[in-house]
Amino acid sequence: MLPVVETLRTRNAKVTVCVTAQHRGMLDQVMEFFGVTPDIDLDLMQPGQTLNTLFSRIVQSIDKVTSEESYDLALVHGDTTTASAAAIACFHKQIPVGHVEAGLRSGDFFAPFPEEMNRVVIDSLAKHLFAPTEASAQALYKEGHKAEDVVITGNTVIDALLMAHERLKEDAELRERIDASLPAIPTKRKMILVTGHRRENFGGGFERLCHALKSIADRGDVQIVYPVHLNPNVLGPVQETLGHHDAISLIEPTDYPSFIRLMQKSHLVITDSGGVQEEAPSFGKPVLVTREVTERWEAVDAGVVKLVGTDDKKLVSEVNELLDNEEAYNAMSSAINPYGDGLASARICDWLGIK
Fold first, then answer.
1. In the sheet that 150-152 helps form, which strands lie side by side, from edge to edge?
2. How do residues 170-189 score in pLDDT, each as one tens digit?
3. Which of 28, 60, 114, 294 has the greatest number of C-beta atoms within 10 Å?
4. What are the catalytic residues?
5. Is the pTM of the predicted complex or chain greater than 0.85?
6. Quick one: CA dihedral 85, 87, 90, 91, positive or negative?
């Protein structure tokens, strides 16, 4: 959302940035990197709270925010609990809602959970639907949304990625400082970047992923770098299975620019993240997705992403294919990323009539 905020302000719109502080650690560092300070920080996260507790606290807090000042429009992004609760709170106040990244669908309310439900709810009440691709727009039309409410913009995550890429390219000191903080990759080893955090993979899914990664690391010609999510359901099995392998670097979750550098330096990416499926192909990196379904079918159709699920044998086989078959690797790395050209924020503002 940060490129949207910047574009709106460049065009002299009066913008209030409100955060709930869901994902506090990730939030603070990325806002600092882009030089944006929230106008309202609700700071709602509490240890061990349920989704329902968080949801209700967000609705109540946004209700208070919208009672203290008048707003012409509320923009929410993506598929988080924050986005759906804020959209409902604004809808109840009859404030028009714009959904940035509308129309993504996996077709399964429990994969990803609760994100699939969140985005369907937001789209059902939004006045402005900013679809990143033609496929996401078609998903909205099939659900009965009117064409005059939908606009294809590309995804703002690519706007943010290209802004950050440009800054890293121009700031050698920042680039060198980041590189010094990341694991060193031994000469002649190809780096595989791994991320994993999805609830639906907790338990057996993560155990199989870890066994697959160990088998891949045993090849001897790769270095796996895994920023490990701090959730105990992830951290436990990862440390137990992978914590003592010299070809596996388990690191703490990185900040946004550091993760971009990891993507840039990687040979391929293994992930269950939605955003990484869009970001990594911008750098020509093949992506293997450890999920059974995805809401980003455009990437699969374009050939930049492949679904491999959590079958350890299948994951090992697909990784070996990309490492050993240059033709297979080039086919994925050279395909065109379908998610945008860095101008999504400008298209959103144009659609809203903010020139």
1. 74-77, 97-100, 128-131, 150-152
2. 999 999 999 999 999 988 99
3. 294
4. 79, 101, 115, 197, 199, 229
5. no
6. negative
